[in-house]
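User: Hi! I'm working on a homework problem where we have to compare a predicted structure to a textbook description. Could you give me the structure for the chain below?
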Amino acid sequence: MRAPCPVLLRLWEQEASERLRDAFDEAFGGVPDGVAVQSMVVRAPPGPALVELADQHDDLLVVGYGGRSRLGYTVHGTVTRYCMAHARCPVLTVPPPELIRELRPRRHHWRPEDFAIPLAG
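Assistant: Happy to help. Predicted structure tokens:
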């Protein structure tokens, strides 16, 4: 995971670039006129990478807020809080849409049968 082969790195970068372009097109219908947009794919911890890239006072860093479970916060921390604490530009936090909040999985109480494997024969 720390040093995958160069071929895989190139493939992952191409896939990430395509996903970014598709998401931007789906959200905004393409690049709006009169807005400077610089898209890039960076392989790094997200909080420090975002803060480093948005380092001018006239930049605006937009990050989502509230998308992780309690375990996710514990394991990964929160990129939003990192950006708000370390950014040198304004940070706009955007909560998830109401639909996402409704579809977010509720707590599940695991039972032993959830892990049962059928015996062959």
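For your comparison, note the following. The mean pLDDT is 79. The first strand starts at residue 61 and ends at 64. Good luck with the assignment!
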